[in-house]
Amino acid sequence: MKPKRTILCVDSNEQQLSIRKVMLETRGYRVVACTAGADAMEIFKKGGIDLVLADLSMPGADGGQLIQSVKAFSPHTPAILLSNKVKTYDQDTRADVFLPKGMSAPAEILERIRLLLVRKRGPKRLQPTTPHPPPSQTTAA
Fold this sequence. Notes:
Number of strands: 5
CATH class: Alpha Beta
Radius of gyration: 20 Å
Structural class: alpha/beta
Order of helices and strands: EHEHEHEEH
Low-confidence stretches: 123-130
Strand order of the largest sheet: 2-1-3-4-5
Distance between the termini: 46 Å
Helix content: 25-40%
Shape: globular
Strand content: 15-25%
Largest sheet: 5 strands, parallel
CATH superfamily: Response regulator
CATH architecture: 3-Layer(aba) Sandwich
């Protein structure tokens, strides 16, 4: 059985956060939910996070700032930024994917997450096919 991937899900709207958490957990992901960007970064620094899914609009540190911090700390961690704004965020973000809320079906979000996690893991490695030599036998004299 393959280990579950852990997603840090951040949104100041607790209802949206709860919906996203249930959606991800029912698909086999482990979810760490957080309502504030600063708290999310503290959780991220502890390690074990495979992907960050953050809302853009949050009080204090917004999702864009959170992803900037995540990428500065761990450039290879995939990050998805969600927003109510239909057009792309006006500032440059380091998010791997930008998805408008309400226009992105849950299936699309799940597929983007799956693809980013596959890319992070890299291609499957072939297992060596050479058999192991039998253990050496010792005889008592």
